Amino acid sequence: MPELPEVETIRSQLEKLIVGKKIVKIDVSLAKMVKLSLSEFRKIVIGAKIKDIGRRAKILIFEL
User: Fold this and answer.
1) pLDDT in tens, 19-49
2) Which residues of 6-39 are buried (b: 16+ CB within 10 A; e: fewer)?
């Protein structure tokens, strides 16, 4: 498990690389983590633009 400073470093690096870009593909390795059906989830996420990356404790939050 990464420590909090490492998570913040990853967040800031990802922010520079992917904010403003569109999601073109997703892979779901654990379907029960998605509350919607996978087809509905894909319709919502694919094509969405990443607006911001935040953090709550050690969890990264992607704003679409």
Assistant:
1) 999 999 999 999 999 999 999 999 999 999 9
2) ebeeeeeeeeeeeeeeebeeeeeeeeeeeeeeee
Report the length, in residues, of the chain: 64
User: How does pLDDT run across 50-60, given as a tens digit for each residue?
Assistant: 999 999 999 99
pTM (2 d.p.): 0.82
CA distances from 20 to 33, 40, 60 (A): 25, 23, 17
CB–CB of 52/19 below 8 Å?
yes
